[in-house]
Specification:
With about 325 residues, this protein is mainly alpha-helical. Helices cover about 45% and strands about 5% of the residues. It is built from twelve helices and three strands. The chain is extended, with a radius of gyration of 29 Å.
C-alpha cells in the first residue's frame, strides 16, 4: 500500500494535477508514459539521467487503474478506460534460474560440509538447519514462504504404494491458500533430523534439550546470508544468463527434475499448486528432454518409382 501512495504522490499527481477522472483516457495514459520516458526540463546535467524501467511504469499505471476503479465504485466514472500499453511488444519468455543436477549436487555437498565444519561454533545449529532446508525444498518443490510457515504438525510420514518408500504428506499454507504436497523419498531423512534436533536457545539447558513442539515452525530463523555465501563461494549465485539464484531456485529445480524424469506435467502442477500453463511457459519450454524425437523426427516413407518398361523388343 505504501508503494502505491508513493507512486501517486511522486509521479501521478504532478502529471494529472487537478484533472477530472472522467478526462483520463487511454490517450492521456499514453502521454503519461511518454512524459516518464522523457528527460525532465531543468535536469542537472552533472547527474546522469536514466529513464525508469518498464516494470516501474507498469506499476504506476496499475496505481492509476486502482484510482479509476475506486472512482467507478463511487459512481464518479461510467467505466474504466483501457490503460494497457498499445505498443508493448511481446516480452521474452525466459526460464527461471534453477540448479542443474550437477550444480545441485555441488550445492548440497557444500551445505553438508558447512554443517559439519561451520565458520563459528555458534553457527552450527543454523548450518545444520540450512542443509536440511536445501534438501527439503529440492525434494518437495515448496515455495520459500510455504516452508517458512510450515509447522511440524502439518507433516506426516506415510508409505507410498507406488514407489514402496516413505514420503512426506504435507499440508501447505502459503500463496495459494491451503493445499497438499507429496514429497520425494529424499525429503524424509531431512525432516526426521529437523524433528529430532533440539531448538536453538541461548538459555537452553544442555542436559535437558528442548525438542520441537507440533506447533513449532520447521525453520524459525533466517539464514539468507549463509545461503548466499555458499552460493558465491561455489560459483552458483548466477546462472549462465546472469540471473541470480535464490531459495526460490530450489523450487524451480524440483519442477525441472520431475519433468526430466518424465513426470506428468499436470500432476507436477497439482503437487506444486500452480498451473500447467505456468510450467509449460517457464520450465518445459527450456528442457531438451521434453522434446519427443519419436514425434519430431518423423520421416515420410518414400515411394519407389515404377521401373522402366522392358526393352527386349517383344510386343505382346
Amino acid at each position: 500500500m505504501q508503494g502505491h501512495k508513493d507512486r501517486l504522490r511522486l509521479h501521478l499527481l504532478p502529471f494529472f494535477g487537478k484533472m477530472d477522472v472522467s478526462k483520463i483516457t487511454s490517450g492521456t495514459a499514453q502521454e503519461y508514459r511518454a512524459s516518464r520516458m522523457t528527460k525532465p526540463e531543468g535536469w542537472d546535467d552533472e547527474k546522469p539521467w536514466k529513464p525508469p524501467a518498464r516494470n516501474t511504469i507498469h506499476n504506476e499505471i496499475v496505481t492509476l487503474s486502482m484510482v479509476l476503479k475506486t472512482a467507478q465504485r463511487h459512481l464518479w466514472l461510467d467505466h474504466v478506460p483501457n490503460l494497457s500499453d498499445p505498443y508493448r511488444r511481446q516480452s521474452k519468455v525466459e526460464h527461471r534460474p534453477w540448479f542443474t543436477p550437477n550444480e545441485y549436487k555441488i550445492l548440497y555437498e557444500a551445505t553438508r560440509k558447512n554443517a559439519a565444519e561451520p565458520q563459528r561454533p555458534n553457527l552450527a545449529w543454523y548450518a545444520e538447519q540450512l542443509h536440511d532446508f536445501v534438501l527439503l525444498a529440492a525434494n518437495t518443490g515448496l515455495r520459500p514462504d510455504e516452508l517458512k510457515h510450515l509447522q511440524f504438525r502439518d507433516i506426516e510420514i506415510v508409505y507410498d504404494e507406488y514407489s514402496g518408500d516413505q514420503i512426506l504428506e504435507i499440508e501447505v499454507r502459503g500463496k495459494r491458500g491451503v493445499g497438499y504436497c507429496k514429497s520425494m523419498p529424499g525429503a524424509v531423512r531431512p525432516f526426521e533430523r529437523l524433528r529430532d534436533r533440539p531448538r536453538a536457545m541461548k538459555t537452553a539447558d544442555p542436559t535437558n534439550p528442548k525438542l520441537p513442539e507440533p506447533s513449532d515452525k520447521l525453520f524459525p530463523n533466517e539464514f539468507k546470508k549463509m545461503f548466499n555465501r555458499i552460493l558465491v563461494e561455489n560459483k552458483l549465485k548466477f546462472d549462465r544468463n546472469d540471473k541470480a539464484r535464490t531459495a526460490y531456485s530450489l523450487r524451480h529445480s524440483y519442477i525441472c527434475f520431475r519433468l526430466l524424469e518424465g513426470a506428468d506435467i499436470y500432476q507436477v502442477a497439482k503437487n506444486c499448486r500452480t498451473s500447467v500453463e505456468m510450467i509449460e511457459k517457464h520450465y518445459a519450454a527450456h528442457l531438451k528432454d521434453m522434446i519427443d524425437t519419436s514425434l519430431v523426427n518423423v520421416r515420410k516413407k518414400r515411394k519407389q518409382k515404377n521401373p522402366p518398361p522392358s526393352s527386349d523388343g517383344d510386343d505382346k
